[in-house]
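Quick note —
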Amino acid sequence: MESEVEERAERVLSEVPSWIWDGKTLPVPVEDIADSCFGLQVRDVEDLRAAPGVPELPADATLSGLLLPSVGEIWVNAAEARAWPPRRRFTIGHEVGHWCLHRVDGAVWCRAPAVDPEEPEADPRPAYPPEESEANQFAAALLMPAELVQRRYEQLRRQDADSCFPRLCSTFQVSGAAMSRRLRRVV
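Predicted structure written out below.
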């Protein structure tokens, strides 16, 4: 299924009109893709628990984002978005992944640890429902297209190996955890 998810994200990127993204400029404009290609409005919301269809959650549980297919909206945790802009981008990509891979009628909500977990070394990673892992794979492939990651990695590594990794994160505007996992997959 991993290769199917990767192929689906590549297909989405290949179908993005050039006036939105030229296929090479970084970072990939994930919010513009969500809006212009899928009609999904992205909203930063302070309390995601107010969304229709969200179940009762423990007081300490947080949501990173949710997809409301019936109204064509992606809600992003506003506090996380302010604190971690790369997390916001990954959450949007994750919810676009749900839209492309798992379209359903009701709300799809994603708890914070399921979206771009911060601990890449955590072993073993918590078992997520398959749909959450697939949405993460889709987001990674959408935000960090394999060919662009490989090409940029080689360029930066030749220039300055010590600053390669932070510059990759900055160029793609993703977290270190997300980039680390992506590099292991595509380089």
